[in-house]
Write the structure tokens for this entry.
Amino acid sequence: MKLLIQHNHFQGEIAGVLTYINSIEPELQQRGIETQAISTKESSLWEWLKAIAQADLVHMNSNHLAFGLLCKLVGKKIILKYHYLFYLSIHSHYEPMSFFQRLKTEFIYSLPKQNYPLKWKLHTFVKLARLATRFSTTLIADRQAACSQFLAESHSFPWKVHILYNPIHVSKNQPEKTIDTLSKPYSFVYVGRLSKDKGVDLLLKATQILRVQNQTFEVLIIGDGNDAKELKAIAAKLEILDCVKFLGNYSQPDVLPIVRSSLALIVPSRWQEPAGYVTLEASSVQTCSIVAKVGGLPEMAGADNLLFEPENVEELAAAMQSCLENPQAAIDRGKRASQYVTERFSPASVVDRFLEIYQEISVH
């Protein structure tokens, strides 16, 4: 079989879609499946047509309507893995509803507020056009897949949506995590954008609660974003700069050793994260995670990591406290979480699922 994998990113860009593709391609090739990845941003219409014509199956990883229509015109079947089709009505508050309720709510959320300036009122047409494009691409695909059970269910489609997790490789040769390998003082680490959606301010407030109790630890914040300056100001106001370090951006190879030596990863997100890949990365290096109960984060964390209610600073602080009081228990949680992601999120298991979907298409 010749498989064409479409995406909408630039080469070298940091994106979950590219991580997903780079993880499954070697596994597919080991099974004798010839793969070609194509970026619809970096290639021409002629290159699209040439690649599509040579493929037996197309695996799309963005709602690119023009590319999808071209596939159908050439007679190729499509497995589409979407991330968010509906976004505005799910982003900050998720409430289960029927498909038509979801569609109506998304439309209402796209409308401009009365006090919006004219340019933002006109932008409503852009938002609605994007929604129509994403939805139309979904309709022409032969099978749809999502990166988490949460995302599949949140759209309430009247048809089946398959689960294709973002895989992660867990090294069998990594050293065992022990008390001795933890950084001293014990550290908690956050990795991601510095924006309101990500809830870093909640981590800072939880840190202050523990500092008032004279706990000794560090909080390492890796990443950058529009709210970096504001978050540093909050840390200064809370008088916790002595134990909070804003480290800026790191490459993934440099981040993982820091995560590995930390007591726990903190994921305090406000928005409904579809899959929270950083949680899988922490589990892959035997590090416990403390995550908010939003979106697909609990699904990524599994039963062995610690969860807290979103926006609940006291509950987050209590989870951090439990790790400080019993670091061996935190390490044990991380080891069990590593086994969980090895079994459920390995490239081999994801490719198995992908090929099951392909077989389903082939018999029709």
About this structure: DSSP finds 14 helices and twelve strands in the chain. The CA atoms of residues 17 and 61 lie 7 Å apart. The mean pLDDT is 92. The two ends are 17 Å apart (CA to CA).
